[in-house]
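Hey, I'm writing a tutorial for new members on how sequence and structure tokens pair up, and I'd like a real worked example in the thread rather than a made-up one. If someone can provide the structure for the chain below, I'll link this post from the tutorial.
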Amino acid sequence: MANTEKVKNGYFKCEWGQLHYRSVNLDSKKPLLVMLHQSPLSSRNYQAALPYLADHFRVVALDTPGFGQSTPPNRVWSVQDYAKIALQSADALEVEQFYLFGRATGGVFAFVAALLSPERVEKLVLHGMPVYTEEERTDRLANFAPPYEIDDDAGHLRWIWDRIHSEYPWIDGHLATQFCRDFLNAGPDFATSYRSIWKYDLPKGFAAAGNRLPCPTLILGGGADRIAYMHERVRSLFPDADEVFMPEATDFVAEQNPELFARIVGDFLAS
């Protein structure tokens, strides 16, 4: 087991507030890897994996604004706004070119960041990348995850716990407790960043870029991922990307098998 004491916490000061991160090797001259988590969770997802990445990279795993310990945005953000936090974190470290990883919603933000600044993102890893149809995006904007209400008998805590177990029936108590903490940090309207990706037409955005990936890209998928059915959509959309598919892996391979996760990501970035 890797030593998680290597992982440090800190903040970048931004125009809307503070951007929280977990990091390893922050002061080194190793290549920079910026990591974006899925909503409504946090950089806690990568706590176990960061020490395994430390041999070859300095890593900054960000809390998306409004999640984890980062300040919420002061207005409704677009997918481009969320994407820019990756670029802003590299700016804060005075790094021009870097590697970028994103999981689920974070994958969309990472992809858009690479489209915005292809000269800066050297390689891109997209894990559990969601690609929605227009009908799915419309339905989710109308019906998905309305804000919960905080009540005096703590019914909202049961609602969060039950929601986590309904989405991830395999989850153990330790991981579910971490997720509950992240849900509570996000607050009752925890779907804010989801809405930004449902308003964004990913295939149209890719077409506007000439249907060309902005940099060498790895798509990472798992057979037990909650959105595993979207993996074929990603392959079809990005036929030139490298691919690693783990038949038994869940959404949270970084927590459940951090050494494997770090090896796959590291091997691609170092190749």
